[in-house]
Specification:
Layout lengths: L2 E2 L6 H13 L9 H7 L3 E6 L7 H10 L2 E4 L5 H4 L9 H12 L3 E8 L6 H4 L4 H18 L6 E6 L13 H6 L3 H12 L4 E6 L7 H16 L5 E4 L2 E3 L7 H9 L4 E12 L4 H20 L3 E6 L9 H4 L3 E2 L12 H9 L16 E11 L2 E10 L8 E5 L5 E6 L1 E6 L2 E6 L11 E9 L9 E5 L2
Parallel strand pairs: 2-3, 2-10, 3-4, 4-5, 5-6, 6-7, 7-9, 8-9, 9-10
Antiparallel strand pairs: 1-19, 9-11, 12-13, 13-18, 14-17, 14-19, 15-18, 16-17
The structure holds (3S,4R)-3-hydroxy-2-oxopiperidin-4-yl beta-D-xylopyranoside.
């Protein structure tokens, strides 16, 4: 562990600190998916199900490897609004709480989808009424999680395979083509801070369906409909990753949206054998490399922690073994290949975090007779970090009255600050900040001492 510095933070001290950090030996290649992804400036996530969080190996694997979580079912319409205007968020809130405690970003999934949709919505036949119901659903659900989620899959699976025509859903039939843009507008109004994505399967390579999604996104960008990203679900089959996946990611990126691989799994006929597992490893490597190669591709999410709980065997008869961890949470060849494609070292890491170093700097942002506000910025050095700690040493008569974007623990004059959650992992050179208010009734407004470290 490296201790980077610092009493008080003039530019000279900071400069010195950076020299010290630069002189330290390079850190080992990261040994977990989330650390390796962070070093590439992307997130690596998984779908997770509430009912498995009590299983120690499940949660240990989830927390160790992933820094983004997508509730697998708990934010879907049938769960959040099972009957009209009656909303429930119990399981979804637990997901968000777990993710926050682990510093994971959360992808909301999903606001408008034809599946897992309660019957009362299917029964509506007036455009005005269904528009109202859809907007009300979005404003309540996205409003409930406002500020807590990094992304929303606003509309899911609105196009058909083959032709690229719109799927015949109640929304399409009753509202018409504009239901998608109305959904995005409602989502932006409900949570202006979340990235809003269109999400679909079989749009991973170029084909009639991804062409149709491309045309829609292009049209939305031209007309100012609020869309920020496209999610390529990537439910794939061993040996058939589209050869043009990178080109397809790139063309969406060129429209000015981010791209996420949102539900990656690569299934095979069961039982698995070494040849199939080797092919699967190559396939995971190909998908991961395609995302890493395009700057606007900002994250990869696999659709489940372990083969044991994957949706695949329930839906595709005779198929399974589609994920990175086997039924016993053993790392499959696909795990090593994915980690390598992210620049990590399957032989290296100890599963822990915080190989990189950090420096930190303090700025006084406001002052008055009996107090002041300060801001601390923590910056990763040449390696990524999965977390950080900053220690403030207060002067006599000073008390930290409030602190935001960090989690403080006070012990006498020492205030130890950990990340708030979402600002935990840092790519090389990236920064996180927290702010605080100090009360100094005696008028002692001198700057606190500051030191920072990993993890
Ligand atoms: C699946 C879940 O994994 C299953 O548990 C559930 O029974 C059905 O839905 N595309 C999506 C996901 O967008 O929401 C689906 O998840 C898989 C396909």
């Amino acid at each position: 562990m490296r201790r980077a510095l610092i009493a008080v933070l003039g530019a000279a001290t900071l400069f010195l600190a950076m020299l010290v950090a630069a002189a330290l030996p390079a850190s080992a290649a990261p040994g977990t998916l989330k650390e390796a992804a962070a070093a590439k400036g992307i997130v690596f996530g998984t779908a997770a199900a509430q009912n498995h969080l009590g299983e120690a190996a499940y949660t240990e694997t989830l927390n160790r490897e992933f820094n983004q979580l997508t509730p697998e079912n708990e934010m879907k319409w049938e769960t959040t609004e099972p009957s009209r205007n009656s909303f429930g968020y119990g399981a979804a809130d637990q997901h968000v709480g777990h993710a926050r405690s682990q510093g994971m970003a959360v992808r909301g999934h999903t606001l408008v989808w034809h599946s897992q949709l309660p019957g009362w919505v299917e029964d509506i036949s007036s455009r005005t009424e269904l528009l109202d119901v859809m907007r009300n659903h979005i404003s309540n659900v996205a409003g409930h999680f406002r500020g807590d989620l990094e992304y929303w899959d606003v509309v899911n699976e609105a196009f058909l395979d083959g032709s690229g025509a719109r799927r015949d859903t109640v929304f399409q039939r009753v509202i018409g083509d504009d239901y998608i843009e109305e959904a995005f507008r409602a989502a932006r109004a409900a949570d202006p801070g979340a990235e809003l994505c269109y999400n679909d399967y079989n749009i991973d390579g170029r084909n009639a369906k991804s062409d149709a999604v491309y045309a829609m996104v292009q049209d939305f960008k031209r007309r100012g409909v609020p869309i920020d990203c496209v999610g390529l679900q990537a439910h794939l089959i061993v040996g058939s990753v589209p050869g043009d996946i990178q080109a397809n990611i790139q063309r969406f990126a060129d429209l000015g949206v981010k791209v996420y691989i949102t539900e990656l799994d690569i299934r095979m006929q069961t039982p698995p054998d070494s040849a199939k597992l080797a092919q699967q490893a190559d396939d995971y490597r190909a998908v991961t490399s395609a995302c890493v190669a395009v700057a606007a591709c900002k994250g990869i999410t696999v659709w489940g922690v372990t083969d044991k709980y994957s949706w695949v065997p329930d839906v595709f008869e005779g198929e399974g073994a589609a994920l990175l961890f086997d039924d016993d949470y053993g790392k499959k060849p696909a795990y090593d290949a994915t980690l390598e494609a992210l620049g990590g070292d399957p032989g290296g890491g100890d599963g822990g975090g915080g190989d990189g170093s950090v420096t930190c700097a303090y700025t006084r942002t406001a002052q008055w007779g009996t107090g002041f506000n300060g801001r601390v910025t923590i910056t990763a050095g040449g390696g990524s970090v999965s977390s950080w700690t900053a220690v403030l040493t207060m002067n006599s008569g000073q008390d930290v009255a409030a602190l935001w974007n960090g989690r403080p623990t006070e012990n006498g004059s020492t205030v130890t600050v950990k990340p708030a959650g979402w600002n935990s992992s840092l790519a090389p050179g990236a920064s996180a900040s927290f702010g605080f208010t100090v009360n100094a009734p005696d008028g002692n407004v001198s700057d606190p001492g500051l030191a920072c470290d990993t993890p």
